[in-house]
Amino acid sequence: MALIINDECINCDVCEPECPNGAISQGEEIYVIDPALCTECVGHHDLPQCIEVCPVDCIDKDPEHAESKDTLYQKYLKLTA
């Protein structure tokens, strides 16, 4: 499952540089996560790094982009090929 940033985001800029896939970018009002690039850090780290550094806990699983760990790992392999 990809991640999503909710409207509690304070635009603190700490999540964007932590994403190993470049999935996080500044949106119109808050940061956004591209579900096509988000692997929840599978293949890179044990835990999603954006969630680890977020000071306001505004990053959740995106129910519209449900993916298994295996699917996330396959996406990681394609992104890093």
From TrEMBL:
It comes from the Bacteria. Residues 1-29, 31-64 form the 4Fe-4S ferredoxin-type domain. GO terms for molecular function: 4 iron, 4 sulfur cluster binding; metal ion binding. Keywords: 4Fe-4S, Electron transport, Iron, Iron-sulfur, Metal-binding, Repeat, Transport. InterPro entries: 4Fe4S_Fe-S-bd, 4Fe4S_Fe_S_CS, PSI_iron-sulfur_center, YfhL-like. Pfam families: Fer4_7. SUPFAM superfamilies: 4Fe-4S ferredoxins. GO terms for cellular component: cytoplasm. This is Ferredoxin. It comes from Methylotuvimicrobium alcaliphilum (strain DSM 19304 / NCIMB 14124 / VKM B-2133 / 20Z). The lineage of its organism: Bacteria, Pseudomonadati, Pseudomonadota, Gammaproteobacteria, Methylococcales. The gene is fdx.
